[in-house]
């Protein structure tokens, strides 16, 4: 069993036409529905929903507050390596980019971690490119062992792995894995990922299934906005989420909606998404699913982040560096992409408090997963 | 007018309103609201506190003599994980009281009855005062009582749903059968729900979301306090109606008059 047959039962052009055919009446029906379906979601992300943005925002805010209260979690990425065997047209770490490659040693990882701990972080997201020879499962296992005594919650955004590899890493304290499909448009996916293991669309598509079977606690999904029509891509994200929730019901889910940022040697985005449209998408996700976590990164601007945290967001990063060693070891090295919000974690925490939210630095404890289930 | 105190294990509570500590917009506001609630038993998620830090923000705001801490195991998925987390909580927070919650389903946070019963049995043997969060399942509550839990905490409605006493019929059976205190945990969205629970004979209620997410959490905490007191007073005063048995006329036996 996997997501693949469900995915294949929804042809791209058909889905896209369905979204663009939605009318104001469909949107109004979706807004009234006590429990919303994927058809309602299509209406809410369609152009027809644009005039209903304020109403969507109010419903989204109320639903988020009921479920998550007046709190927002803080997390920070820790880039371990920029080595990569893939060519991705939009990424600064792409194999064909002539940049200095670096993979942090355990000592360097601890130096970086000390800075993050000093800022108050207890949740950290480990990020790498895809270089299985040097940054494979052995390396990741060592990194988790190095960091586990220092952080309450460890997440990972690295290359897709096999099920048995995830089963090896979870008992080392791996709580969450983020794996973004980038785009569900199969032909365009090939164009953007012409070389490397990442060019295998289906292996990536079935990664959440492997994670679910391995018993991961939390799984993050998303697409890279800018590669293809964001509405259609977001429909597949929602379809994927719904399938996963019903199949791997013990796993928690989160969604991200990264908009393409300028990066060294990359092509400009094919599709531009406006701020209004991103707010529409965030609210639509919330109206479809009241329990899913929604995350916003430093890709977005300060002004946008300050407003959007009130509309459905449940976790936010701050102070991020997207280059390995960026916090302490090699602050001048090249970043994966440019960040937009350079405010410190303390400034972000103060911004949240001013808006009536408690910044939550710790919402997990390693002691809760000393015995991995089955 | 005072109501009867509530005894659970070795402790006596004047207040029958237990509270949670999540979802508040700040630890200071939480403290103020909990003080206004009059609550004497406050549940804290082990995952939210840094037990190695004596200056932990949440714990610092809970250090009042009237607040007894009730650590909870939110986040665990199995009995094994719960027992491990409970031991850590006991050591770190210096209490053997435990709100046992095992909800492997992170979407609706519904308790796993099988793992909960397994964990309860083991924790009681390890000397814990166990208050398990469970479905309003009368048989499960009896089974838990038999393994030695100090109280049962059936849900009124899905947690955080604010829907009130959706499980009323089953709660009535639990109250009727139970030899340990019954605490309705989860789903109470308004003071009137809490009052109704106490009126029907529930021993106490646990409220979090309805207070934390209210427009004015301090005022809402006070409102819940009054509602719980009123509900208990009404219960002790014996409600006049409705009655379970008909009393109006006796068509079958009036010929004997």
From TrEMBL, chain A:
It comes from the Bacteria. Pfam families: BATS, Radical_SAM. The keyword Iron-sulfur applies. CDD domains: Radical_SAM. Its cofactor is [4Fe-4S] cluster. Keywords: 4Fe-4S, Iron, Iron-sulfur, Metal-binding, S-adenosyl-L-methionine. This is Thiamine biosynthesis protein ThiH. The lineage of its organism: Bacteria, Pseudomonadati, Bacteroidota, Cytophagia, Cytophagales.
From TrEMBL, chain B:
1-deoxy-D-xylulose 5-phosphate binds at residues 160, 186-187, 208-209. Pfam families: ThiG (PF05690). Residues 8-251 form the Thiazole synthase ThiG domain. It is an enzyme of class 2 (transferase). It is found in: Cytoplasm. InterPro entries: Aldolase_TIM (IPR013785), Thiazole_synthase_ThiG (IPR033983), ThiG (IPR008867). The lineage of its organism: Bacteria, Pseudomonadati, Bacteroidota, Cytophagia, Cytophagales. Homotetramer. Forms heterodimers with either ThiH or ThiS. Its EC number is 2.8.1.10. This is Thiazole synthase. It comes from Hymenobacter frigidus. Belongs to the ThiG family.
């Amino acid at each position: 069993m996997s997501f693949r047959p469900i995915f294949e039962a929804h042809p791209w052009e058909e889905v896209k036409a369905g979204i663009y055919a939605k009318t104001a009446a469909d949107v109004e029906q979706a807004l009234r529905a006590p429990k919303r379906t994927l058809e309602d979601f299509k209406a809410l992300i369609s152009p027809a929903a644009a005039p209903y943005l304020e109403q969507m925002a109010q419903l989204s805010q109320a639903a988020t507050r009921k479920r998550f209260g007046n709190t927002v979690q803080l997390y920070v990425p820790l880039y371990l390596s920029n080595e990569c065997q893939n060519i991705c047209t939009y990424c600064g770490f792409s194999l064909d980019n002539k940049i200095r490659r670096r993979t942090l040693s355990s000592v360097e990882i601890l130096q970086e971690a000390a800075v993050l701990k000093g800022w108050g972080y207890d949740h950290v997201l480990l990020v790498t490119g895809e270089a299985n020879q040097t940054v494979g499962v052995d390396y990741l296992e060592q990194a988790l062992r190095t960091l586990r005594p220092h952080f309450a919650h460890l997440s990972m955004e690295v290359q897709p792995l096999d099920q048995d590899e995830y089963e090896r890493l979870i008992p080392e304290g791996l709580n969450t894995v983020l794996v973004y499909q980038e785009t569900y448009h199969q032909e365009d996916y090939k164009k953007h990922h012409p070389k490397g293991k990442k060019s295998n669309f289906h292996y990536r598509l079935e990664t959440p299934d492997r994670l679910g079977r391995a018993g991961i606690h939390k799984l993050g999904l998303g697409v890279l906005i800018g590669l293809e029509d964001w509405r259609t891509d977001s429909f597949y994200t929602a379809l994927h989420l719904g399938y996963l929730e019903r199949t791997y019901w013990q796993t928690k889910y989160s969604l991200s909606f990264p908009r393409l940022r300028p990066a060294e040697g990359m092509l400009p985005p094919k599709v531009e998404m406006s701020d209004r449209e991103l707010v529409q998408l965030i609210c639509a996700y919330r109206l479809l699913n009241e329990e899913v976590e929604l995350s916003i990164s430093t890709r977005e601007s300060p002004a946008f982040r300050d407003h959007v945290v009130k509309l459905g967001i449940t976790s936010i990063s701050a102070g991020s560096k997207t280059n390995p060693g960026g916090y302490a070891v090699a602050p001048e090295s090249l970043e994966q992409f440019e960040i937009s919000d350079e405010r410190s974690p303390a400034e972000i925490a103060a911004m949240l408090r001013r808006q009536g939210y408690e910044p939550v630095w710790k919402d997990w404890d390693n002691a809760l997963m000393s015995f991995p289930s089955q | 007018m005072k109501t009867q105190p509530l005894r659970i294990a070795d402790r006596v509570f004047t207040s029958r309103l237990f509270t949670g500590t999540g979802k508040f917009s700040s630890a200071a506001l939480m403290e103020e609201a909990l003080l206004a609630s009059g609550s004497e038993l406050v549940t804290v998620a082990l995952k939210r506190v840094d037990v190695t830090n004596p200056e932990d923000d949440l714990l610092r705001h809970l250090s009042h003599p009237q607040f007894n801490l009730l650590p909870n195991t939110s986040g665990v998925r199995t009995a094994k994980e719960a027992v491990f987390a409970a031991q850590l909580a006991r050591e770190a927070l210096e209490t053997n009281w435990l709100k046992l919650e095992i909800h492997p389903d992170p979407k609706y946070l519904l308790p796993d009855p099988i793992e909960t019963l397994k964990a309860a049995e083991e924790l009681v043997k390890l000397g814990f005062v166990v208050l398990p969060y469970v479905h309003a399942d009368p048989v499960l509550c009896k089974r838990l009582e038999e393994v030695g839990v100090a109280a049962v905490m059936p849900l009124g409605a899905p947690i955080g749903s604010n829907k009130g006493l959706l499980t009323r019929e089953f709660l009535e059976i639990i109250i009727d059968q139970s030899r340990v205190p019954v605490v309705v945990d989860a789903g109470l969205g308004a003071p009137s729900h809490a009052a109704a629970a106490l009126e029907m004979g529930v021993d106490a209620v646990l409220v979090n979301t309805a207070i934390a997410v209210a427009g004015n959490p301090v005022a809402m905490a006070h409102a819940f306090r009054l509602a719980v007191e009123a509900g208990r007073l009404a219960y002790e005063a014996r409600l006049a109606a409705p009655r379970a048995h008909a009393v109006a006329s006796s068509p079958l036996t009036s010929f004997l008059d």
